[in-house]
Structures are given as structure tokens and as C-alpha cells.
Amino acid sequence: MGRLEDRATLKTWIYWAPGEQGQASRTAQPPVITLRDVESYNTEEVCSVLGISPGKQRVLLHRARAAVRAPLEDYFAAASFGGLGPVR
Amino acid sequence: MTGLSCSEFVELVTSHLEGKLDRDTERRFTEHLAECEGCDLYLDQFCLTIRMLGELPAESPPDDAGHRLLSAFRDWRGS
């Protein structure tokens, strides 16, 4: 994911992540995944801002992360994990 | 207690990463991970995805803007 256009595409996926995107557009709230994984807010802050429970936050976050990962599967398969550094 | 299926495993990944699995489920998660190559790869990809999200090019506002945004959202919810 070195090229700028790839990163821009990734960002587009985030905003269209199923489950969260629909909710976000209805409520005009930022998606949980944007606050947590892009902007690095913690669970407590996100729950406070969005007025949701930690459990609900985790469900939305998981669904969105899974939706972002899915289209990246081919990219990951083609890339050498070694070149991407330690994963976990 | 029976082992986890792959479909159960993938649903638990975020809870695992957040340290929110109870002890027994965490043990079953780890056991499944050790014996399932596909789920091991899935977890790797999941973690990579999260890392990439954190490395997106910053169109971010300056540091103090984050706190002002949080306040704005709170005010907006309260209105």
C-alpha cells in the first residue's frame, strides 16, 4: 500500500464500509472505525461522543474492519508480509 | 467445551484484540488459532488492515482541533 492512490482508495472503502456507512449517513455521525482506527480515539471517547455502549461500539468497529479487510485480501495475498513489517 | 469454528473465530477478532474475551473464550480462540492456518492468516490481515488505517495520509486537523471536534459533537448531541 505504498502508492498514494492506493491509500486514497482504502480511505474510500472505509467511508463506504457496510453497516457503519448507512448508520453514519442517517445520523450524521462519524463512523466508529474512523474515530478509532484513523483518528486513534479510545473506546471511552468514542462511546461518549457517539452516545453508544462499548459493546455496540465493538460490534460496529468489528463489522467495519472486516468490511475494509475483505477487498484488501488480494493485495495482502500478493504482498510479502515480511516487507510489511511485524503484523501483531 | 468444544472448539471454535472458523466463522465463530472471525467474529471474535476485535473482541480478542480489545482484550474483551472471557478467559475460556480466549483460550478457545488461541487454540483455534494454533491449529487453523486460514484463521491465522485472517488475524494477520485484520491487524494489517488496522495498522494501515492508522497510517492513512493525514488530512487530519491540527492537534487541538481533535478536542474541539469532540466538544462540538457532544454539544451537537446535547442540543
What string, H for helix and E for strand, traces the elements of chain B in order?
HHHHH
User: How many strand segments of chain A?
Assistant: 0
Structure class of chain A: mainly alpha
Straight-line distance between termini of chain B: 49 Å
> Based on CA inertia axes, which overall geometry of chain B fits?
elongated
Integer-rounded radius of gyration of chain A: 14 Å
Radius of gyration of chain B: 18 Å
Largest interface: A-B, 35 and 27 residues
**Helix share of residues of chain B?**
over 70%
Q: What portion of residues of chain A is helical?
A: 55-70%
Total helices of chain B: the number is 5
Secondary structure: elements and pairs:
The complex is a heterodimer of chains A (88) and B (79).
Chain A (H helix, E strand, L loop, with lengths): L3 H12 L4 H8 L4 H7 L4 H8 L3 H16 L3 H6 L10
Chain B lengths: L5 H6 L1 H5 L5 H13 L1 H18 L8 H16 L1
Q: What's the gist of this structure?
A:
The complex is a heterodimer of chains A (88) and B (79). Chain A has 88 residues and is mainly α.
